[in-house]
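Next comes this protein.

***
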Amino acid sequence: MRKSLLEQLPGIVAAGKRQAAQVLEQLEGRNKVSLQTRELVIPSKDTAAEDLFHAGRTSEVSDFPNRLIYGDNLLAMAALLAGDEETPSLLGKLDLIYIDPPFDSKADYRSKITLPGTTIDQKPTVLEQFAYSDTWSDGTASYLAMITPRLYLMRELLSDSGSIFVHLDWHVGHYVKIILDEIFGSDRFVNDIIWWYYNKMQGNINTFPRNHDMILYYRKSTDFTFNPQKERREKPINQIKRVWSKEKGAIVNAKDENGKVIYVESTHRTIDDVWRISMLQPADKTQNLRFNTQKPEAILERIIQSTTDEGALVADFFMGSGTTPAVAERLGRRWIATDLGKPAAMITRKRLIDQNAKPFLYQAIGDYQIEQARTTLGRNFRVGDLAKVVLDLYGALPLPAQENVNGSLGRLPGSRTLVFADSPSRLTTVSTLRRAQGYRDSKLGGFDKVIVLGWNFSAGIGHDISDLNDPNLEVLVIPPDLLDRLKKKGADKLASEVRFSSLQYLQATISGRLQMGGEEELRVDLKNYVLLSPEAINLDEKNRAELWRVMNAEPLALIEYWAVDPDYDGEVFRSVWQDYRGNTENNNDELRVVTKAILQLPAFEGPRRVCIRAVDVFGFESEVILEGVEVTA
C-alpha cells in the first residue's frame, strides 16, 4: 500500500538534507559548480574605462556587480556558495531571500511569442519541460523533494541577521511550513502573511472564492533587521494614545493630568499580517509584463523595506519576471536573481535595462552538461562514456580503440563520414573544428566528410564555420535535454527521437566610424539572422509552419534583444548599447528591434574590435566579432 504524504514527509526532508550536504561537501573540490559570465550589461551607457568585472578582486561582496543568473537554482546556489577566483563565497552573506516558487501542478508554462502577422504558442523549452516534469512527477511529494534541498542551501546563504519569505498558496503551503520549521526552527517563524488581493472573485456554487496567497516569514536568528511599516488610512480617526509605562512594564493608555484618556488624530496605521494589495491589472502598463504568476511591486517593496536597510543584499531564486531585482534596484539594495526559464531571464534583463539599472552581470551555469552527466551517469563518469552514448544515438559506430581519441570518434555505416562528439566540459571553438578536419584527413586513411556534434559553442562559431569554407565539415548541436531524457527513458528508447540541429547565425556590419574632436560615432547595422533549426524548437506543426513563414519573410523580426560591445576583449562581453522588442524609445514598433545602432563614444586611437551579440525570441544567442574597424572619412 502506498504511503500517505504525511508518512513520506520525514523521508523527503532527510533526502533533501543529504542532497544539500552533498552540495556543501563539494564546494572545495575539483567538481565544484561555477558560473560563466555571458554579459556585463551597462544600461547607463557608461563607456568609462573602469573594469567593473575585475575591479573588485577582494573578499568584500559589496565590491561586485549585481547578478542575473540563468539556470537551475540548485546549481546556481552551489556556485554562489563555492565562489571562484573572481568573486568570494556568499556563505552567510544574503540579508534577504524572497522566493515565489511555482506551486500549481496544473499550471500552463507555455509562452506566447507575438511576431509580425502571427502569434506562436511555444511549449516549455526542453530544459524547463524536464525540470517541471521532475517537480510534479509524483504530485506534491515530488514538489517537496524539489524545494527541500534548495531551502537548506538558502539557509546557508542567509546571514545571521537575514530573513526569508516563501510565497505559496493553498496547494502546498501547509506542507512547506512543516519543512521550514524543520530547517529554520519553529521558533524562527515570524508571520504567516496573508496577501489578500480583493478582486471580488465570484467562485462557484460549491466553494467560497479563493482570494489570497500565504507568505511564510522566517528569521535566521534572534539578531535581525525589522523596520515597521505604516500605510495611510482612508479616513483619519481619533485613536487612544498608547505609551510605555516603566512602572507596569507594559504599553498603556496615555492620560492627561486629570486622568482622562488622551485621544490623537491617527492618519496612518501600522501594517499587520494581512496585506490588502491588488493583483496586477491588465490595464497597468507601467509594470504588467504579461508574465504568468507575476506579482505586484508593492509586495516586494514592503518586504524589502521592512527587513533590510539600504545597501543590503537581496536574492530571489525563482525570479520570474524580475520583480525582486527591479524593486531592490530602485530601493538601493544589491541583488542576485536566478531562474531556470529562459523567458524569465530575457524579460528580467530587459526590465532592468528599461529602468536604467546599475551595471549587472548576466551569468549562466558553467559546465551545465557536466553537472547533468554526473547526476545521470554517476559522479565519476568519464567523458568517453558520454561520447559513446552520443555517437550511438547519432547512428555512428566507434572507431577502433587505437584510432579513437577519448572514445569521441565514430563513423557512419556504409559511408566515408567521420563523426566527432565533442566534450561537454569545454566550448566547441574554431580550434575544435580544425582538429576535427585533421581527424578527417588522417584517421584510417582519411574520410570524405566530418560531422562535429557539440554541446556548448563559442558565440562566434557561425562565422568561424563560414570562414573555414569547408563543404565537407558539418556542425550540429547535441540536444540540451539529452541527459534528462537519457535518465528517464534510456538510450535504447531515444534513438528514433533525438534530433541534432544546425546552428543559428547572425550577420552585421559597421557602416561608419567617425571622429569629431574627443568623441566618435560608431554605426552598426544588423543584416541577417538564420535561426537554429525550427525542428529543434518545441513547437507543434502549425506553429512551426508559421515560424518558417516569418523566417523566410523577415528573419530580423526574430531578434528579441541585441547589444554592442565596441571594445571587446575576447573574455567578457560588455554591452554599452542595447535594444529589444518593446523598447519604443528607439522606435514605435513593439514587435521589432531597430536594425541600426548609433553609439556615441570617447575617441579611440587605432582600430576597434567590435562585438555584436543577439538573442532571438526563443532565447538562442549568437554573435559577430568585427576586427580592425578603422575610422572612416
In short: The two ends are 82 Å apart (CA to CA). The first strand starts at residue 35 and ends at 41.
